[in-house]
UniProtKB/TrEMBL annotation:
InterPro entries: HRR_RAD51_Paralog, P-loop_NTPase, Rad51_C, Rad51D_C, RecA_ATP-bd
Protein name: RecA family profile 1 domain-containing protein
GO biological-process terms attached to the record: DNA recombination; DNA repair
Location in or out of the cell: Nucleus
Family: Belongs to the RecA family. RAD51 subfamily.
GO molecular function, one term: DNA binding
Residues in RecA family profile domain copies: 29-214
PROSITE patterns linked: RECA_2
Length: 271
């Protein structure tokens, strides 16, 4: 017979889960982190699901980064945990974060948060956001490895709060260059990134949020980048479009583990 240590080692290596175990995992561990954009949260059934990878895809200037910044600001302001924000194109904007928290402090639900001076509110939020610049696939591997080691050692925290949200804006900026022929093992590296992200999400109950750009699909149509191999990776996939010369955006569900595809919601991003 196996002892308790042997069983726990087997669990870490992978095993079959029965229905009761899956239900317990979903109801007790997999909660939602609200993005702070009410229509997006409603569309997603509550927000960014912990333990899962959510992808936001859309053309340039469609609002993808705005959703990332809103999500980071909302989670930090509500003191739900620490946010790890991997910035691949210098898109992280502290001034935009300030605009978000000053304009919606009454929605954060953190008792006394809106009564704090503006500077104190901003510093409180920024202390809970760890921003790292990552400009190539090798730097991404290094940062993800360091994050995993730190999570295992319980070192990535702020005042007792652990990392609960990992954002990569954008994942396609790092993966597209390696699958275009320059790197023979590019697709294998892409799948390795996918496996690491999903393992981090599952093992440490993180919400992982990534952005992806669009490429031509022929006949004037567009589709998410990174091809069919990546298509199966996200648990949830939203496509964002923006009305011409407007701040009004539309989010459409392309893929969801619990909800029907094709559902839409409109939201407004700051000018």
């Amino acid at each position: 017979m196996m002892n308790e240590d042997q069983r726990s080692t087997g669990d870490q290596c992978g095993r079959f889960w029965n229905g009761i175990e899956l239900l317990k995992d979903a109801t007790e561990k997999k909660h939602f982190l609200p993005t702070g954009l009410e229509s997006i949260d409603t569309l997603l059934g509550g927000g960014l699901r912990q333990g899962q990878l959510t992808e936001i895809t859309g053309p340039s200037s469609s609002g993808k980064t705005q959703i990332c910044l809103h999500s980071a600001s909302n989670v930090a302001a509500k003191q739900m945990g620490v946010v790890m924000y991997l910035d691949t194109s210098n898109s992280f904007s502290p001034s935009r974060v300030a605009t978000i928290i000053y304009g919606a402090s009454d929605q954060f639900g953190q008792r006394g948060f809106e009564l704090q001076p503006k500077d104190a509110r901003f510093k409180s939020v920024m202390r809970s956001i760890i921003c790292e610049s990552v400009f190539d696939i090798f730097a991404l591997f290094e940062v993800l490895h360091q994050l995993e080691v730190s999570l295992l050692n319980d070192k990535v925290n702020n005042g007792g709060s652990k990392v609960c949200l990992l954002i990569i804006d954008s994942i396609s900026s790092l993966l597209a260059p390696i699958i275009g022929g320059k790197y023979p093992q590019g697709r294998s590296m892409m799948i390795t990134v996918a496996m690491i992200l999903k393992k981090l999400a599952n093992d440490h109950n993180l919400s992982v949020l990534v952005t992806n750009h669009m490429v031509s699909a022929g006949n004037g149509a567009v589709k998410p980048a990174l091809g069919e191999s990546w298509k199966a990776v996200p648990h949830v996939r939203l496509v964002i479009s923006r009305e011409c010369e407007s701040n009004i955006c539309t989010a459409t569900v392309l893929k969801h583990t619990l909800l029907a595809s094709g559902r839409t919601a409109k939201f407004v991003v700051p000018s």
